[in-house]
From TrEMBL, chain A:
Residues 129-341, 133-178 form the RING-type domain. It comes from the Eukaryota. The lineage of its organism: Eukaryota, Haptista, Haptophyta, Prymnesiophyceae, Isochrysidales. The keyword Mitochondrion does not apply. It comes from Emiliania huxleyi (strain CCMP1516). Residues 19-29 have a biased composition (Acidic residues). GO terms for molecular function: ubiquitin protein ligase activity; zinc ion binding. Its EC number is 2.3.2.31. This is RBR-type E3 ubiquitin transferase. It is an enzyme of class 2 (transferase). One of its GO terms (biological process) is protein ubiquitination.
UniProtKB/TrEMBL annotation, chain B:
GO terms for molecular function: ATP binding; transferase activity. The active site is at C114. Residues 29-175 form the UBC core domain. Gene3D superfamilies: Ubiquitin Conjugating Enzyme. Keywords: ATP-binding, Nucleotide-binding, Transferase, Ubl conjugation pathway. InterPro entries: Ub_conjugating_enzyme, UBC, UBQ-conjugating_AS, UBQ-conjugating_enzyme/RWD. This is UBC core domain-containing protein. It comes from Emiliania huxleyi (strain CCMP1516). Residues 8-27 have a biased composition (Low complexity).
Amino acid sequence: MSEAGSSDGYDEMSCSQEDTSDPEEEIFDSEPIRQQTQTFTVLDASECLALAQKEVDEVRELLCCSEEVASILMRQFRWNREKLTEEYLCDADKVLKRAGIHQGENLEIVHADGAVAVGGTSQPRGSLPDVQCLICYETSADYSALGCGHQFCNTCYTTFLAHKITDEGYNCVFATCPKPECSLVVSERLVHSLALPADKRAIFDKARRIERSYVDDNPNLKWCTAAGCGNAIRAPKGHLGVKCSCGQRFCFKCNDEDHAPCSCEELAKWMVKCRDDSETYNWLMSNTKACPKCATSIEKNGGCNHMTCKNSSCKFEFCWVCLGPWRIHRAGSYYSCNRYDPEKEKENPEAKKKDSSRAALERYLHYYTRFTNHHNSLKFEVEARAKMEEKIKEMEKQGDKTWIDCTYLKDANEALYECRYALQYTYVYAFYLPQGGNFRTHFEMNQTELEQQTEQLSEMLEKDVSEIHRAEVVHCFTMAKTRLTNLLELVAVRGSGSATDTSGGAGSSSDP
Amino acid sequence: MSASGAFPAAAGTSSSKAGAPAPAASGQSVNKRLQSELMSLMMGGDAGISAFPDGDNIFQWTGTITGGAGTVYEGLTFKLSLKFPTGYPYEAPAVTFNPPSCFHPNVDQYGNICLDILKEKWSAVYNVRTILLSIQSLLGDPNLDSPLNGHAASLWPNQADFKKALLKHKSSLPSGERRP
Ligand SMILES: [Zn+2]
Ligand SMILES: [Zn+2]
Ligand SMILES: [Zn+2]
Ligand SMILES: [Zn+2]
Ligand SMILES: [Zn+2]
Ligand SMILES: [Zn+2]
Ligand SMILES: [Zn+2]
Ligand SMILES: [Zn+2]
Ligand SMILES: [Zn+2]
Ligand SMILES: [Zn+2]
Ligand SMILES: [Zn+2]
Ligand SMILES: [Zn+2]
């Protein structure tokens, strides 16, 4: 399959795209949903450690050095084993010196268990002669040194390390002796002998872990961005959307949230734009709007955009996005609240008066409202999933369905989430898409189809348990997934440059 | 990179550990170190360099350097501003020519200096004295590989032309270098 669209991970469709056959019949002839061959894999922390350990072991044998030296060298050479062995065989001393590994007489001074070890020999604490610290200029007998013997008082050494850890994060593993020109790398023994705050020491320890640097330095590996997850993802460099086994989705390229079908650059531009304009459009983020007919306050408590006024004497049905009557959205069987039509705007007598900057703002507003709407709906979709679990239990209690039979509802919710998730970014993509052209027409057609199917699915899943029909739901979410795949593939084809009807790249439209 | 979030807050440290830092006193220790530097600078009597705090603010100094003998800068004096962060000396001070009157390959039009020891090669062992001596030596021995002032770098090989441009540049600045 094509790579650039990063539709990987989405299930391949077995369902026909024609939406005419009877769903009750179709469920029996549809093939089981297959998992597509993924171009990314999830590795847990122990798998990462095993990979890193294997590299270290090979270097240790190859260079006949200790495991610690092999780890330091690999970290220093950013896990480029070939480069390391080549340079090491050429001039081992030079490589060791540059990596900050001590050679020659051991002049280390470290404190441990009430004693002080000088060059590995333990002495009682306080037995050292006074020296002047090169950092604070105070004279004291309480100091430490690495193997090089460059002494600094313990207070200064501790503050020095605390700054390195805070200011440089995981790069603190490369911290060297404070003495200028001394390349000796700070040892774990020294760090552990000093009274660093526990959180700082923990960062240093994490920084030293070989799998941490192995993953951080490998362009084909990335840590899952979910807090506390600890898994890593392996994917080709430049790959976009990935999904961890913990459920976290993120962009492999920019580490931001998964933003298919739009590119990292478009997302970054969009985020800046949204920040700049956010004040004006804060109201759009709210979950409450007034009914366009009777002004009753309507709270959106479901992901679906089809709203019905709760005022029993009104019951006006409208679209949450544009506040227009719902029936016009159904005209021609399309849910069509996705297209920004400048011609239609012109017909509006109010719009004629507005200047071009206002028009640019409105164009942005059009895409922004739709982006935000899907974005906010996602939150409800998550809540809906929890409700769904309850529903499944309810259905189980009814006795005629087993848990296995009901798992299709979980699949349906997952599909709904995936579709809505991608839909928000289709509006960012469309915003930066040049006006006019065949591609835009194709894209918007696919977007409409996906949006319509997604709303239909959302509505279906909002129903009472007794009204949910398995075949209908399966048909609906299978269709939604097909449409998502179609849309992502369309974008991928354009991205790979094989589309002939694209004039100008994404983002070449004038930025309002 | 933010790695701290995932870890528990600092717990009490074992008594066998050495050198418990006193965070509350860190401002005090910076102050102490700067006072001590000031003393040794006044006692030291290095040729062509001097520095003194601006008024009561110990974190803001004005330094003066005179071009070394045998260089195009010989006899010319330049003023520098030194701003010390609270993390000093673990973090480098911000040092700029102020006024930006120094025409030099490694100094930009705002007086910013491209010198490794003020950036990635900074060490807590360096101090005001070593900074001023390094800048003084940079004047006569510029790094022409990555100049901030390309014009100055291109003139450098012809020292006579360079001197002309240097003097012209210095006199064009209204504040000049006259001593108070
Ligand atoms: Zn079907
Ligand atoms: Zn000290
Ligand atoms: Zn710092
Ligand atoms: Zn050293
Ligand atoms: Zn540890
Ligand atoms: Zn994860
Ligand atoms: Zn990205
Ligand atoms: Zn109403
Ligand atoms: Zn609805
Ligand atoms: Zn609508
Ligand atoms: Zn609409
Ligand atoms: Zn530079």
